[in-house]
Amino acid sequence: MTTPVLRLESVRKSFGEQVVLRDIDLAVPTHSVTALIGASGSGKSTLMRCANLLETLDDGAIFLDEEDITDPRADEDSVRRRIGVVFQAYNLFPHMTVLDNITLAPRRVHGLGRAEAEAKALELLDRLGLAAKATEYPDRLSGGQQQRVAIVRALATGPRLLLLDEITAALDPELVGEVLAVVRDLKEQGMTMVLSTHEMSFAREVADQVCFLDAGVVLEQGPPEQVFGDPQQERTRQFLSRIV
Ligand code: ADP
Ligand code: MG
């Protein structure tokens, strides 16, 4: 078996008295897409925040290319460069143009020169059909365009892994498709991704493995045909019948 890009080993996380992740084990193979599904509050965002070192674990470990990134000696900047993140709400900096939003991290964190960072950004924008928006400010873009720019920004440091946390949840329904199309393209290009979504038909289509989280436990995990088509747990069946 090849080395997973991301691996969680007995990950535990609590907030005060509340245990939010209980002994989570998860391996994300290279070039694969993992969809996290589950009710609000089941721990999807916390899992991704732990992987991006925005939260510290109570127990367990997380490995990126088999390097223990939860080791206190791990270099957080290096980890964040290798993991691109996009959240639900467009989190572009409103006072910066699209191009400046995208080139900020490559220039600050990677130490890339402006010309090189901009050339790379324009190439990515072009690939997503957004080259004409490079000098616009975020509020001049539709929600779908903003979210696509946020994806470009996450890609700009050349990450090994993308974490996409409900990236279509705040969009008007008619704008969801263009964002999901980008995810589909990235999968075709072999990008390794972990995403959380309430779009079950999309998860079914794009995911190689689906993880159903329930109160901080991976209750069911497997290929989409199995989790959606033949769920083994009553709670999974309940969740799916409510949502689809
Ligand atoms: P999901 O993304 O699946 O909706 P979250 O990971 O956001 O779930 O939340 C899991 C649980 O952890 C929820 O009960 C939430 O209220 C709690 N939680 C998340 N972040 C914090 C925090 N910073 N402080 C306290 N509780 C939190
Ligand atoms: Mg969430």
Question: Which key phrases capture this entry?
Answer:
244 residues, binds magnesium ion, alpha/beta, 9 helices, binds adenosine-5'-diphosphate, 38% helix
Folded structure, characterized:
The protein is of the alpha/beta class and 244 residues long. 38% of the residues lie in helices and 25% in strands. It has helices at 44-51, 76-82, 98-108, 114-127, 143-155, 173-188, 200-206, 224-229, 234-243; strands at 6-15, 18-28, 33-37, 59-64, 67-68, 83-86, 161-165, 192-196, 209-214, 217-222. The strands form two sheets. A six-stranded mixed sheet has the order 6-7-8-3-9-10, with helices on both faces. Strands 2-1-4-5 form a four-stranded antiparallel sheet, covered by helices on one side. A hairpin with a 2-residue loop joins strand 1 and strand 2 (18-28). Helix 5 packs parallel to helix 6 (173-188). The relative contact order is 0.17. Bound molecules: adenosine-5'-diphosphate and magnesium ion (MG). Magnesium ion binds at residues 44-45, 165-166. The site of adenosine-5'-diphosphate has 10 residues, from helix 1.
